[in-house]
Design a protein that fits this description.
The chain has 342 residues and is of the alpha/beta class. The chain is built from 12 helices and 18 strands.
């Protein structure tokens, strides 16, 4: 099969790799219908040391089941399924708490002999616990929004849930990338009355307004914090969807004492302002990697009936063999989120 492999910073290649096969009786092989490049894929794209073996890329995909292991009971060949961005058994103690990201038998695509999602097919471990069957055909117009449930929409929802967003709230979302825009959708879905989107890319913030943002703050740093406080007096609930120290500082600067900051962006820093000043403010710092599997079935009905349309974050489609172009386009901010079609 053809699949994307990263060999180092800026070096993504599409090459022939062995076709996936059933290894464990709980596996399924899924033929990919749609995949994408994630914002988190850009961090290794910018900084990964060169390697001679390469790393299969991609963790967001949707496809058709081709084969199942002997112990898979909930799926059969021909089912259209969406895969959360990590696999999990959905039965261990962590999964029972809705924390599938920490599943005792789970793992990540592209590691430990498991295929990446940016390819023609994927071996999915723990298939019964991982894959969610979809009640539409593979050519449905809903495929982009259903694919978004694999990561960005469920991650945005995780931010809104962990921030404690409720009806009537004022919420700040820091970051106008795909996750930040999906956090706007999620905050609006949970009833937020006012949503301030901190971002400076006009096309993206315009889409954010269509998703439900009521205000946009383009200023950054101290000026951005001052503008948020001027507009709102300070916010009690903040979703940080970038992962840089500057974004975290913005979130902490804008949040009210006693408020909550939910981190969604994969941190690109090792130290943060966790000393006495933050301690005295009684700020709750929460969020983290989303347990996407816990949210897919909760959000699925709203995608199916058109209440939410997160697939709009995909603003360009690339054939699989042009996946390296998709990475370049996203890294150069020419594309918000690239859809990949095998």
């Amino acid at each position: 099969m053809r699949a994307a492999v990263m060999y180092g910073a800026g070096d993504v290649r599409v090459e022939d790799r062995p076709d996936p096969k059933i290894v464990e009786p709980t596996d399924a092989v899924v033929r990919t219908v749609a995949a994408c490049v994630c914002g988190s894929d850009l961090w290794p794209y910018r900084s990964m040391p060169a390697t001679g073996t390469g790393r299969p890329m991609g963790h967001e995909f949707l496809g058709v089941v081709e084969e199942t292991g002997a112990e898979v009971t909930g799926l059969r060949a021909g089912d259209l399924v969406v895969a959360p961005f990590t696999y999990s058994d959905n039965t261990c103690d962590y999964c029972a708490k809705g924390l599938q990201i920490s599943c005792r038998h789970g793992g990540r695509y592209g590691f430990d002999g498991v295929d990446g999602g940016q390819g023609e097919a994927v071996r999915v471990p723990c298939a019964d616990g991982t894959l969610v069957k979809l009640p539409v055909a593979a050519d449905s117009a809903l495929v982009p929004s259903l694919l978004a449930l694999s990561d960005v929409m469920t991650t945005g929802h995780h931010g809104a849930v962990t921030a404690g967003v409720r009806r009537g709230d004022t919420v700040l979302v820091v970051g106008d990338g795909a996750v930040g825009l999906c956090a706007v959708i999620a905050a609006r879905r949970l009833g937020a009355e006012r949503i301030v989107l901190a971002g400076r890319h006009e096309e993206r913030t315009a889409l954010g307004r269509e998703f439900g943002a009521t205000d946009v703050v383009a200023e950054r740093g101290a000026e951005g914090v001052a503008r948020v406080r001027e507009l709102t007096g300070g916010v009690a609930k903040v979703i940080e969807a970038v992962g840089t120290r500057q974004a975290l500082d913005t979130a902490l600067g804008a949040v009210l004492d006693g408020g909550t900051v939910s981190r969604l962006g994969a941190p690109q820093y090792e130290e943060g302002p966790l000393g006495r000043a933050g301690f005295l403010r009684n700020i709750t710092l929460t969020g983290g990697a989303s347990p996407a599997r816990a949210y897919i079935e909760r959000l699925l009905p709203d995608v199916l009936d058109g209440t939410i349309d997160p697939g709009r974050v995909f603003d360009r489609t690339f054939p699989l063999d042009r996946t390296p172009d998709a990475y370049r386009a996203m890294a150069d901010r020419q594309v918000l989120k690239a859809l990949v079609r095998p």
